């Protein structure tokens, strides 16, 4: 079912054809009408959003329940690279989580490569580098992979023509990364100030040279942008529809959840009745990219995250070890709930357990 | 019909005479052998138009793309409606566009020179309020609206308290550690329809209500992806706003507009006509025509809106109306 709606976008994938568009495993609109399915424009966007249980995970045998992390040393010795999610693992909002600096230092001292992969597209890698610095962590730009960077990297990987433009429904991070990669963009936060008037004779024009629409979290989301993006996707032949991520909610402040990038993407999927190419977790694009870049084997990686349907699924889809930390959005009861089918290899309360557990086993 | 049952989870069924409607729906699409009829839509012609007219007591019209496009009347519509009324036909207007109330739609018709009364109009804004009414939504609970004035007005008429609506289009959000986004804990339902004033404030408000208020309902007036909000082009419809909220809440909405036959129940309360003597005229296959088929009506597709002949005849299209024609005023030319 997924494949029908993504035919046109699949045709443009080259080296990364195996990562394929993914949708959130939470969508289960199997009881929708009409039963008949056609790519556009007859089916409801929902039909296309129907995802079987995570595509790649379903090819593995049913996983055993996650084990509480007891022998941290064993895990540390068995891998060469640790990939960390940021929100809920390294920090919460603007506060560092306890014991993080010491843990990262310890891992580095044991020769481990550290990489930070976040679905948050509001900042560029450079801007994230500054955030790490402000929090007293020494992390370089090259170690950071935000979904804003992923969108630009994806366009580069498919040789997106430089004479085509990219329309952005999202924030500054995406614009900065596109600029760095040498692409011309339109839209972004500025379009948040644009208004439309639905009256006779009014025609909204759009640039026919837009060859891709990139959608991510956008606090300046409005009807102008939705229409612009919709027109590009529906009317510009071969126009790509790229999503930085589809997170339903996200901890933009540490006090509460906020509607995430998934809602902006859902809006465009609803109006275009097309499924986007997702470059952020749980799509393995970023993992393939960094494995390629650093020349590392997936089996040598451990993904550490706080969210099952993005971080852990990302790790599993990529074929690496997975460690869930309970310092973010997922609680132990959520992990152990019968409704949950995503089981990481290990779980622990927070990453500084690497230090305390290590001490315990000495 | 298997299809009807599967749909139940997001499309509320028409409440009365459910069995009758189903039987009618079945008979409308099955042949004598009980197999699904593989009909090919007939182009409206002098012969079949006469037959259609004689066997129809009530014509149900979609509005956007059939009667008007934005605020512009489609050519010949006024004369056609006059002709049908003169032949004693009942005219009913069934629209998924929730931006106006029935009263506001009546005003729009009148301003375009067509005499239509409020109770001949069944809008999805009305359907949303009725859904809450028939399901005994408690009056002490509130309804958060992501949509137009029409929904708020219908809610008020039905005795409910609405929050949100176009006003919230002016509100902004501060993403700072010391700023907490509050929401009314007494909101018991979020109604989502087409909203040209959509913004992050509303997305967040609706999301928090659905995710955090126990038992909060998520109701969609309709799922139309795009529609002719102006005469010159299509614009994102409710399907877009509903898509946004569905993604952030990870929930499916209850859809009260076409193709759900929910509104048909209210229609039948006013017009005691067998649905087989009704003809649904619309421009959209997956809402108008499907609605007509589900309810056991005859169906006529007009090509003056979102659907082209190419789309109708594409092999991937499985929804076949009984008839099709380029626009409503073809009736004038043909008869």
Automatic annotation (TrEMBL), chain A:
What Pfam families would the database entry show? Answer: Hydrolase_6, Hydrolase_like
Tell me the leader sequence span: none
Matching InterPro entries:
HAD-like_sf (IPR036412), HAD-SF_hydro_IIA (IPR006357), HAD_sf (IPR023214), PGP_euk (IPR006349)
UniProt keywords (A-Z) are: Hydrolase
**Classification via Gene3D superfamilies:** HAD superfamily/HAD-like
Q: What is this protein called?
A: Phosphoglycolate phosphatase 1B, chloroplastic
Q: Which organism is it from?
A: Vitis vinifera (Grape)
UniProtKB/TrEMBL annotation, chain B:
Family annotation (InterPro entries): HAD-like_sf, HAD-SF_hydro_IIA, HAD_sf, PGP_euk
Instruction: Return the GO cellular component terms, semicolon-separated.
Output: chloroplast; cytoplasm
Tell me yes or no: is Phosphoprotein among this UniProt entry's keywords: yes
Q: Note the Pfam families from the entry.
A: Hydrolase_6, Hydrolase_like
Cofactor(s) the protein requires to work:
Mg(2+)
Task: Enumerate the Gene Ontology biological process terms.
Answer: photorespiration
Gene Ontology molecular functions: metal ion binding; phosphatase activity; phosphoglycolate phosphatase activity
Which reaction is recorded as catalysed by this protein? 2-phosphoglycolate + H2O = glycolate + phosphate
Query: Where does it reside?
Result: Plastid, Chloroplast
Question: At which positions is Mg(2+) bound?
Answer: 62, 64, 283
The UniProt entry annotates the active site at 62 (nucleophile), 64 (proton donor)
Classify the source by domain of life: Eukaryota
Q: What does this protein do?
A: Photorespiratory enzyme that dephosphorylates the 2-phosphoglycolate produced by the RuBisCO oxygenation reaction.
UniProt xrefs under PANTHER family: 4-NITROPHENYLPHOSPHATASE-RELATED, PHOSPHOGLYCOLATE PHOSPHATASE 2
State the family it belongs to: Belongs to the HAD-like hydrolase superfamily. CbbY/CbbZ/Gph/YieH family.
Full protein name: phosphoglycolate phosphatase
């Amino acid at each position: 079912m997924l494949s029908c709606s993504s035919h046109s976008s699949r045709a443009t994938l080259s080296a990364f054809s195996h990562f394929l568009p993914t949708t959130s495993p939470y969508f289960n609109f199997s009881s929708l009408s009409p039963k008949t399915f056609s790519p556009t424009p007859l089916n409801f966007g929902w039909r296309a959003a129907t995802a079987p249980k995570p595509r790649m995970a379903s090819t593995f045998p049913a996983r055993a329940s996650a084990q509480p992390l007891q022998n941290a040393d064993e895990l540390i010795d068995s891998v060469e690279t640790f990939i960390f999610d940021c929100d809920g693992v390294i920090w919460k909002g603007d506060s560092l989580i306890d014991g993080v600096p010491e843990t990262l230092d310890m891992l580095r001292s044991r020769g481990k490569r550290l990489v930070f992969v976040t679905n948050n597209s509001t900042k560029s890698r450079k801007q994230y580098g500054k955030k790490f610095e402000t929090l007293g962590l020494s992390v370089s730009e090259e170690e950071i992979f935000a979904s804003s960077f992923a969108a630009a990297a994806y366009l580069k990987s498919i040789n997106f023509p430089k004479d085509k433009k990219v329309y952005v429904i999202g924030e500054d991070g995406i614009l900065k990364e596109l600029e760095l990669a040498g692409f011309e963009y339109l839209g972004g936060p500025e379009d948040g100030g644009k208004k439309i008037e639905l009256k006779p004779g009014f025609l909204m024009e759009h640039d026919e040279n837009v060859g891709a629409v990139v959608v991510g979290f956008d606090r300046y989301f409005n009807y102008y942008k939705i229409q612009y993006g919709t027109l590009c996707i529906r009317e510009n032949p071969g126009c790509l529809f790229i999503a930085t991520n589809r997170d339903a909610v996200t901890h933009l402040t540490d006090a509460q959840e906020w509607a995430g990038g998934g809602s902006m993407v859902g809006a465009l999927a609803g109006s275009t009745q097309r499924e986007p190419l997702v470059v952020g977790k749980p799509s393995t694009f970023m993992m393939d990219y960094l494995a390629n870049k650093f020349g590392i084997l997936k089996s040598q990686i451990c993904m550490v995250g706080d969210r099952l349907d993005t971080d852990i699924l990302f790790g599993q889809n990529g074929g690496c070890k997975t460690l869930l930390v309970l310092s973010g959005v997922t609680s132990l009861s959520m992990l152990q709930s019968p409704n949950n089918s995503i089981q990481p290899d290990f779980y622990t309360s927070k990453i500084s357990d690497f230090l305390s557990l290590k001490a315990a086993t000495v | 019909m298997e299809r009807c049952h599967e749909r139940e989870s997001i499309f509320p069924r028409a409440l009365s005479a459910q069995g009758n409607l189903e039987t009618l729906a079945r008979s409308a699409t099955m042949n004598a052998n009980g197999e699904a009829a593989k009909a090919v839509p007939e182009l409206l012609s002098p012969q079949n138009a006469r037959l259609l007219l004689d066997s129809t007591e009530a014509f149900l019209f979609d509005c956007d793309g059939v009667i008007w496009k934005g605020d512009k009347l489609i050519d010949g519509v006024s004369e056609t409606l006059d002709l049908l009324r003169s032949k004693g036909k009942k005219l009913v207007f069934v629209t998924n566009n929730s931006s106006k109330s029935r009263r506001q739609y009546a005003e729009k018709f009148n301003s375009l020179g067509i005499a239509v009364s409020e109770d001949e109009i069944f809008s999805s804004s009305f359907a949303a309020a009725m859904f809450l009414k028939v399901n005994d939504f408690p009056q002490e609970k509130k309804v958060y609206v992501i949509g137009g004035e029409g929904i708020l007005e219908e809610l008020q008429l039905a005795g409910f308290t609405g929050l949100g609506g176009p006003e919230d289009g002016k509100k902004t959000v501060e993403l700072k550690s010391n700023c907490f986004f509050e929401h009314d804990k007494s909101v018991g339902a979020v109604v989502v329809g087409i909203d040209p004033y959509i913004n992050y404030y509303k997305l967040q408000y609706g999301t928090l209500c659905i995710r955090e208020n126990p038992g909060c309902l998520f109701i969609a007036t309709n799922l139309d992806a795009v529609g002719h909000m102006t005469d010159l082009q299509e614009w994102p419809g409710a399907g877009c706003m509903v898509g946004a909220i569905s993604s952030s809440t990870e929930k499916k909405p209850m859809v009260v507009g076409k193709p759900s036959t929910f509104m048909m129940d209210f229609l039948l309360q006013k017009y005691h006509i067998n649905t087989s003597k009704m003809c649904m005229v619309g421009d959209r296959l997956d809402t108008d025509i499907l609605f007509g088929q589900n309810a056991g009506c005859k169906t006529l597709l007009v090509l003056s809106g979102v659907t082209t002949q190419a789309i109708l005849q594409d092999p991937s299209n499985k929804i076949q109306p009984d008839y099709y024609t380029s626009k409503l005023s073809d009736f004038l030319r043909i008869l």
